[in-house]
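Hey,
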Amino acid sequence: MTTGESPAPEPSGPRKVAAELLVVAAVAVLLVTAFQIDREWVSRHVTLPNGPPLGDEAWRVGLRGLLVLAALLLLRLRPTLVACTSKISVARVARSTVPVLLAIAASVVTVEVVLRWFPPRVVKGRAMYPYGAPHPRYGWTGQPSSTTTTRVSGRDVLMVFNEEGIRIPKQGDEPDPARPTILFTGESIALGFGVEYAESYPALIAARRGVQCVNLAGAAYGSDQAYLRLIDAMPHFERPVATVSVFIPLQLGRNLYDDRPRLVLGPTGELDLVPAATDFFSRLGIRKLLWKGPPYLGDEAIHRTMALTAAILRDTSLRTRARGATPLFVIPSNGPNRPLDEHPEAWILRELFVKQGLPFILVDIPADQLLDDGYHPGPRGDETIAAAVLAALVATEPAGEP
């Protein structure tokens, strides 16, 4: 500044007051939100329905830290923000914003073109795991008539599927529709991810109970996909003994995915199957790359998926009983043996199972019975599940029945 020049006038008047209030309000919102993010909030809205790899505490600390840091940054920049906001005009904002928006749009278009020409595996869809294949009704199944070796937790595991994409011990070993049968459904835990067929809990139960067990589960299935496979298969078996369905809270988030055929609740509460979304946004490669489903579920989304899941589980039980078979729902939970109220998912189980009077068992899987991923049961974990299922089924049998 040369001699004789006067300093730029400080912003004053209504604009300055409005700018000050805006910054203070933003800081207050950030701090209040950070205060509300406790472990229970994170568990309810983030980790239980979506299953990210980090634990509740890591998410709580991380989210709180980011919000507090943002609030402190706003306070540190308050004088500058107030000064800029007080002086800037709408026309000036438009002139500075348009180039930024154009640059962002150009970047998005460039990335989208690259993804169309060179789609990474994840963009091709969740059906494309090593032993999966797309299916028009279920979204995906096991690769029909295939034998695949996958390496999990330091060992090779054989995955064999028949022509219907159902896991079987070996090619040619098909289910017999005339035999007494227990039908199993669910997601990767029920499928037996990372364990040999003979080590999976359906196979263990078949060997110990002397009854045919058919595994209809599919990797990464939502409750609706597992339900559809079960109700489609049930009429083909003349003597169903029981249905055993795995449920995990992670399926609450999956049940809202719109990149596959899915069940929704109709106007009068009926279950309707709707096709995968086909709008412009759903077809974008960027969306498929970055977004499999909502990483956060708000209260409305939780209410919607809980109502849908409750209807699915309820109809599973009704259809099973209509065939004279016993329904059983299995909820594996990683951790030591503990009462229901000490489980973070207790509120979900009370709403879906206790309130509806559905038969369920909560099976705790200690850490030393899990695979290296810290999530899926290993051979010992499947042993634990098999023992719990066998005990529950025996308890439901009429007196005198073998």
